[in-house]
């Protein structure tokens, strides 16, 4: 059963079964439900100690999706970025290998690449001009005669564990930490391999800022709010409060059926229902702890949420990818318009209320907030967060 083609057949079958479940939800006006409520302390969104613990025990421990194959396709391509206050540099060397480093010069700590994307074969620190190779090794220092002798082999960039898989580039923020994508994703990356994600094209990115990263993230984990918050943009196509959840370790695939799922599926044989993503239903794919990928017919939006400088702030990078490269100038204009539309909906409709929620939680009005039986995705996310914060690998893992 481990042959890739067999796995692919399993995947189509599984998505076909999910499509059938979602069609029933729409017909009977029901949704995925669990048997309990879950309470989360309001302080979890406001407390500086919680914020620190999340950085140390979650963000610095798990493999984070930090870049895309499509974003760094050529040898020499690099990206320098801020990840929750940590400067990270990701690059592809001449042989095609992707590496990640802390973007910090071994001399006196300046960044060796400015934030953003570019292409180069070596990095030169802008402070005193030390240069590093694509492998992070120190190549040369300025005025070595007066600086004095050093052992260059000990003065490289600090490397971070990094692995490229199925078009996705994962990095662990702790040097030398093990990175085990198979265990972490439990087969989920096959989904991206099946989508041929490694051959997609990168269309660009936008940055938005909002409230505590979990307030923002909670909004990606349910469709219970579509009717009230997105009456014009999402609800016309996708009914409110109609979700299906599947788990792959701490990660989720959330299914959102369209109102017209019945008509769409009636037109294709049952064996092909598993191939109808975006025709009758959509998926939002969640990588714990902070990524939400929405593959839409027009363009794919992949949000990376990072804790901001205080508990009440997050910085979200919205990445846009598409299966087909840009065709011409008119296509580029249309893509930019689609990107701005997605960014605006995400910011104006979800992030603005997030800032109000932040104020509400900081007001002390309620000690806890409560996730309902229909908000299983949120519950599952918070259960995994608590599991990591507990820092006891022998504790039983949450199950969906
Ligand atoms: S800090 Fe980089 S060369 Fe001095
Ligand atoms: Fe929303």
How much strand? 25-35%
Category by helix and strand content? alpha+beta
Low-confidence stretches: none
User: Total strand count, please?
Assistant: 20
Cα-to-Cα separation, first versus last residue: 24 Å
Q: What is the name of the CATH superfamily of the largest domain?
A: Naphthalene 1,2-dioxygenase Alpha Subunit, Chain A, domain 1
CATH architecture heading of the largest domain: Alpha-Beta Complex
Largest sheet: 7 strands, antiparallel
| Number of contiguous helices | 10
Widest sheet: strand ordering = 13-19-18-17-16-15-14
Order of helical and strand elements: HEHEEEEEEEEHEEEHHEHHEEHEEEEHEH
Q: Tell me, what's the shape?
A: globular
Mean pLDDT: 97
**Secondary structure: helix percent:** 25-40%
